[in-house]
Write the structure tokens for this entry.
Amino acid sequence: MNNFSLHLATKVLFGQGQIAHLASVIPADARVLITYGGGSIKRNGVLDQVHSALKNYTLFEFGGIEPNPTFETLMKAVEVVHNNKINFLLAVGGGSVLDGTKFIAAAADYVGETWDIVASGGKSVTKALPIGAVLTLPATGSEMNAGAVISRKETGDKQAFHSPYVLPRFAILDPLTTYSLPPRQVANGVIDAFVHTMEQYLTYPVDAKVQDRFAEGILLTLIEEGPKALKEPENYAVRANIMWSATMALNGLIGAGVPQDWATHMLGHELTAMHGLDHAQTLAIILPAIMRAKKTQKWEKLLQYAERVWGIDRGTEDERIEAAIKKTEQFFQQMGAPTRLSDYQLDGSSIPALIKKLEEHGMTHLGEHGDITLEESLKIYQSAR
């Protein structure tokens, strides 16, 4: 196991009715900006719960944060922060709202060109407004980590940044808030959490038995509960297990002391930025292609994945690995996410432009070994057609 430093500093309030305790985790004198997305929190009553819990606070709202939050929209929120002397941000929504709110927090008092927050990967951030979260869509784990992904329409960019300054102070996770989610968002959340886990698990062995078993437990839970969530949208136990799985998949725990990949996400981001595909759809396309392209490098963990997650222990090693990859594809398809570019009416003609964007963003040596070059990425995109 590799050396690591782990500090899980976000306070989690999990379960039914926890929104009512918001006042216990936000300073009494805070001027709070509630950020949200398309307005579903108004229809399902979550926003009313937030207002009721914070009835003695000075509250402002900013809605319209997109599923892939854009720099252009978020800068309008920064203006609201400045104009109303906001000193606390409360993100109410899914990962995109949280990611966007992290950018708002970092940009509020930023000196210089604000896109540098993203372009620098977060290294230029030296302070940020405090953030809290009320999660309504389990997927990204953004409620308990310091990362965010932001898009810029003007340039067609989609990039990530990380900074300890934007780590949420607290996260409220009430599975009841997820009951009204459309099936596509449920499926996307499950797939996103699944691939987050795989990015930290499917690399090479370093004898990190606890991390491996945790990761396998998350994968098995998502495989078991994901399809149930589509069939039984108001099954509290199912929703609770999915919600906690998504948080645990990317809060730093299973990634501590182990090598990590993240090439699937980097290649997927370019597909979203260029073609507007859902983030999870791009992951469903790219992960199986990378599993096959890097089969040799991931051989031992692929065999472990096949046996421990899918129960595949017969046949040659190559047959077991291919069977596990096919099982992964079938799971994504079962959740409603096809696994080929052609399934989304993409013929591959944009692949050269995708490679150009990867080069522009410095994504020239990806993967746990840094051996996914632009040439390798080209082959991966082509194999996913």
DSSP finds 14 helices and eight strands in the chain. Residues 209-231 form the longest helix (23 residues). The longest strand covers residues 88-93.
